[in-house]
Amino acid sequence: MKRKLNGPADRPGTAGPAVVGWQEMPRGCVILNPGNALEYQTGDWRSFRPVWDENLCIHCLRCWIFCPDDSIVVRDGTMVGIDYDHCKGCGICARECPPKVGAIEMQKESGA
Ligand code: SF4
Ligand code: SF4
Fold this sequence. Notes:
mainly beta, 2 domains, two-stranded antiparallel ribbon, about 25% strand, binds iron/sulfur cluster
């Protein structure tokens, strides 16, 4: 059985994903390098994109609290944007943004 790996750590010196056999995988498929989820561009999965309006935002950070992918970017207690490399487009941030504020709108990705 072959499995495609997408993390850069799994494909040193190559542009595409490496393919390894089951003999090369760690027993139980345990993750040996914790935190490697950052290497996966899960934003590729997205069919809807959260679009943030900086002018409407009141920086309550409800979106940051509820985002399951840690894709709301905050600096010094202020929202500064969305990490589209990892945002999967679930829409939770738009739903949790206070209705009277409405600073995040979900829009269909082009080509989705
Ligand atoms: S759409 Fe989902 S994953 Fe993307 S920023 Fe909002 S809550 Fe996070
Ligand atoms: S929930 Fe809405 S108002 Fe609050 S920080 Fe996020 S985008 Fe801004």
